[in-house]
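Morning F.,

Quick status update on the modeling queue. The single chain you submitted on Monday has been processed. Sequence for confirmation:
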Amino acid sequence: MTGIAQKQAVCWVVSDGRRGIENQALGLAEALARQLPDTRLAIHLVHVTKQGFVALPSSPPPDIWIGCGRAAVPLAGKHRRVFPDCYFVYVQDPRTKYRSFDLIIAPDHDRVNKPNAIAMIGSPNRLSQAQFSNAMTQFSDELASLPGARAAVLIGGHSKRFKLDDRVADYLVHRLHTLLDQGIKLMITASRRTPETVHARLKTEFGERDDVWLFDGVGENPYFAFLAAADWIFVTEESTNMLVEAATTGKPVYALPMAGEAGKFGYLHARLEGWGAVRPYLGQLARWTYARFAETDRIAAFLLERWQARSSSVEQRMPT
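Structure tokens below.
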């Protein structure tokens, strides 16, 4: 085992490769690496296919294993037998396989009450000041073409509880036009969950405007640049990940309504509103400040403490 006190450690990030799932585990690993200034954390991605096939990285055995998504759960049990000294972490609720993990990091609204679980508001993300700075540099030319006040608009789509139907699309288009009428430049990105009809409508309404940057999914993703360059951030309310990510910027965040009921996610909305980050958009822009939402760093610090304690215990048991 590569000890925690040594200059290098190995972390495997395990998922099915979907961007939203992988980024939660990867964001936690990157936050952990930032808290290890004297140790290089080598992060390797491990993808599990729908058929259950796994491509293992060319690396030493992992010291820490961070998984997210259902595909990672059965693999954890197998890898525990192969790497008994590794520290196993799962992001989200593993449902029944709680004993497969040393630490479970579950959203607060999932109410996972287990001795090896810790709750966090939302989920881990990859956002950092370094990410923002790099993105601003990478997309400096495009941002220079949108001088003045800017708003980032992050559009999600259908989920279990919400729908982006025609009525919601009408509302979104109307709101975006009112922002443009106020002289606000727009940076719009839609997700893979956004219906194709809404993608097409956004392109028709805004694709040819000089005061709009509409990302169509082709080329490098400017998502981090949008967050870094925005004066305001608008997010459709069903996207809990994007709401939390927007709140890490310390900038005003407006939630845009969708068709449906929030259910348990209403608790997350309330927490973000109580933090001072998120407000409903009622047609009037405001500027306000709040402490940047830093749940990923908080959880990474907790993980580091637990991992170090586990590593020390393992080393004490090793024969001299």
